[in-house]
Amino acid sequence: MPSPESPRSVQPEEVTAVEVPPAVLELARSARRVCVLTGAGMSAESGIPTFRDVQVGLWERFDPMELASPEAWRHDPAQVWAWYSWRASLVRAAQPNAGHEALAAWQQRAGVDLQVATQNVDDLHERGGAEVLAHIHGSLFALRCDTCDRPSHTAYRDLAEPVAEVDPPACEREGCEGQVRPGVVWFGEALPQEEFFAAVEAAQEADLVLVVGTSGLVHPAATIPHLAGARGVPVVEINPRETEVSEAADHVWRATAAQALPALLAQLG
Question: Is 137 a catalytic residue?
């Protein structure tokens, strides 16, 4: 199948060649509580297509907003399940990149409490060795019943190529007539409150907030850096391009996650 490109490993000489802004390094060295908010740019370096970039081939004629909604699920669950099965196959084919691994290593440092909150629905942080405090937009693999909300232990079909329809599994709960749905937040649905408020609390109580690879366009997750900044918490944006977060950041570092995070960790000693 047309799998994502394998992430290019970041070599040690490249890490040392990446210049860490002195102000960012000073903040990271002194911070004992760090909150890292990650978005699509974090996973893009692992070859995972963005929400819209996954619309290729069979899915080109569909608007992803029309597939990622409760209305689409009610109208044609087999079509929606097929689309998410294809997305899950792409995620499973990808590997964590150097940025994911650097965050996992940073979490292991003595005297540092580093919390990761992500807008990504993939599992690359976990596979890279990090603990995730909050999946703000849900998790692709946290399957549950669309009727009784019971978590499901079933799995997506592994698709070698996109298909138009795949029947979703039935709920495993006796007497329930529901179907298993993806564990992501669809358009028109509320964010999981426990996850969102955990991310807000971690950001507001941190000594440093890093915003990595997110556009800052999707609300209410986009408000988290602003809420932290309002409490006086320094906010650093790591992104190769300007975003809606840039104006709210105290420091902007124009680099990718797989470049910046390993370099920062190396400089921390």
Answer: yes
Please give the model's pTM, rounded to 2 decimal places.
Answer: 0.89
Domain range 49-93+140-184, CATH architecture: 2-Layer Sandwich (3.30)
Token pair for residue 240? 């190769």
Query: What is the CATH T-level fold of the domain 1-48+95-137+191-269, as seen in this structure?
Result: Rossmann fold (3.40.50)
Q: Which one from 100, 125, 137, 219 is the annotated catalytic residue? A: 137
The helix (H) or strand (E) run that includes residue 252 is: strand 251-253
Residue whose structure tokens are 């060795």: 129
How many residues in total does the chain contain? 269
- Measured at the CA of 54, the angle between CA 49 and CA 57, to 5 degrees, comes to 135
CA distance 67 to 80: 6
pLDDT tens per residue across span 169-197 = 999 999 999 999 999 999 899 999 999 99
Pairing of strands 138-145, 134-135: unpaired
User: Tokens 């998410």 appear where?
Assistant: 84
Give the helix ranges, DSSP H, for 94-236: 98-107, 124-127, 193-204, 224-230
Q: Which residue type occupies 116?
A: V
Contact 171, 180 (CB under 8 A): yes
